[in-house]
Amino acid sequence: MPKVTAAYLEARRQEILEAALTLFAEKGFAHTSMADIAAASGISIGAVYRYFPSKGDLVLAVCSEGEGERIPGDTATEAAEQLRRHVDPQHNGRTHARLVAQIWGNAAIDPLLASVVARQHTRIRDQLADLITQKQSGDSEHRTPSDEAEVVLAALIGYAALVAVDGHVDHDGFGRALSRLLD
User: Fold this and answer.
1) Under a CB-based contact definition with an 8 Å cutoff, are residues 44 and 51 in contact?
2) How far is 150 from 9, CA to CA, in rounded Å?
3) Which of 19, 20, 102, 148 is 20 to 30 A distant from 11 in Cα terms?
4) Residue 65's closest CA among 39, 93, 35, 96?
5) What is the pLDDT at residue 140?
6) CB of 72 within 8 A of CB of 79?
7) What is the DSSP string of 115-155?
8) Burial tier of 3 (Cβ tally within 10 Å: 0-12, 13-18, 19+)
C-alpha cells in the first residue's frame, strides 16, 4: 500500500476548506452541514471529520486562513485598496463579503471565533498602521496611525456588510474616499 504524503493530506485539507468557504458564503454557517461540505469537496464524510472533528473546528479553520500573511501593497492606500477589492462585487468579492459579514456576526456570540477575529483584526490594523507611519513625516495632527488604521478597517467591515446584502453602494466612490482618507 503506497504511503500517503504530507502534500496529499494538505491538498485534501485545502479542498475541504475551499468547499466549506463557498458553502458558508452561500448558505451560512448554520445551514451548511458537514455532509454538504463532503459532497462539495468530493471527499467522504469520514475523511472530512478526520481533518475537522466538528463543524466548529472547520469554521475556525476557514476564519483563520491567511493568518500571518502580509497585506499586499507598498503603501497604506494600496493595502486598503487591496482589502476593498477583496470584498468588492465588481472584482468577484461578494462571496468573501458574505463570509466576512457572517464571521463578524458569529464572533459576537462565539468566544473562540471572537479570538480568531480579534487576532486577524489586530494583525491587519497593525500592518496598516505601519504603512501609515511610513507616509507620515512631521504630521502635526493629533491622530495616531493605529487610530487611522482602525477607522479604515471599520469602514471596510461596513463596506463588506453592504456588499453581503446587496446594499446600494458606490464602489468606486468608496474606493476614492478611502484613498483620500489615507493620502
Assistant:
1) no
2) 38
3) 102
4) 96
5) 47
6) yes
7) HHHHHHHHHHHHHHHHHHHHH-SS--SS--HHHHHHHHHHH
8) exposed
C-alpha cell at 33: 452541514
Contacts of 33 (CB under 8 A, 6+ apart): 55
Considering just the CA atoms, what is the radius of gyration of the chain in Å? 19
Q: What average pLDDT does range 16-20 have in this prediction?
A: 95
Q: What is the tens place of the pLDDT at every residue in 112-155?
A: 999 999 999 899 889 888 888 887 655 545 568 888 888 888 88
Query: What are the contacts of 163-171 at 24+ separation with CB within 8 A?
Result: 163/87, 163/88, 163/89, 163/93, 163/94, 163/97, 163/98, 164/94, 164/97, 164/98, 164/100, 164/101, 164/102, 165/101, 171/88, 171/89, 171/90
Q: What is the largest CA-CA distance in the chain?
A: 69
Q: How far apart are CA 81 and CA 91, in angstroms?
A: 12
